[in-house]
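Translate sequence into structure tokens.
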Amino acid sequence: MRPIGLLPALLLAAMPALADPALTGEAFDALTLGRTMTWAEFGQVYGVEQYLEGRRVRWTVLGDDCKAGHWYEAGDQICFQYEDDPAPDCWTITLNGPGMLARYAGTPPDVEPIVVQETTEPMACFGPKVGA
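Result follows.
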């Protein structure tokens, strides 16, 4: 005979952890406006983004040209649209200690999220529009 207290414990252990709520556009703006953030995957920074007035952004993949764009809220996602790409990139973004976690739209929940954190390092832009 199985102890009655074991079944509820097993059920709780099998349930997925409740996820932190997605940031609203207002909360995301409050956390990013006027800041420069790194985007890292598997512990390696791959991109840097500056957050400007009016929900405008400047993005670069490390070692590449900077791209101007903007972000907007779409449901529980934050979507980015850049000057050279008509299709938006949408993310579910949550708080995580001193930074944020970002999951690309459609990414399975078992895939590690992107870590987004503020940096004090200047943003390096290469190419013909340096400093633009």
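Note: The domain at 18-118 is CATH 2.40.128 (Lipocalin).
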